[in-house]
Every structure is written in C-alpha cells, then in structure tokens.
Amino acid sequence: MTGFGDRPVTEPHHRPSVADDVDAPVPGLVSGGPNAGIQDEYAAEHLQGRAPAKSFADHEDSYATNEVTIYWNSPALFVLAHF
Q: Pick from 31, 60, 54, 57: which is nearest to 45 by CA?
C-alpha cells in the first residue's frame, strides 16, 4: 500500500501518481503484489528465476506486479468501510 507501513510501495504503475509532479504516490493505493507470471518487460528482465512470493518489483514499469487497479483497491475500501 502506498504511504503506509515500514516498506510502502513508492513507485506504483499508476499514471496519475507518475504524472502529478509530486515525488510521493497518491497515498492509500493497493498495488498488485507478487506475480510469478513475468508478464511485462521489467519483470522479465529483473525477476526471472525468483520464487513466486519474491516476484515483485516496486517500479512503475512493472505493471504485472505493481499496477494499481480497482479490483485490488475495492476490497480494501470494503474492509475499511466496516470500521
């Protein structure tokens, strides 16, 4: 999640965060997480051969591991709404 925790996501594949001329991404966004599928060029170059749980790149070019999408963020919002 961006902006929270000991090791927050700092470089999500999120166009508004990249294009807003602010160093930090929009806080509170959930990124994809580990993905051993190696579906993008950045992951293919940097994550090849890693264990599935270690197949994550906090880099804006790795959409397969670090993209911010509605289907990851909506469950987080649902849980937070409960509290």
A: 57
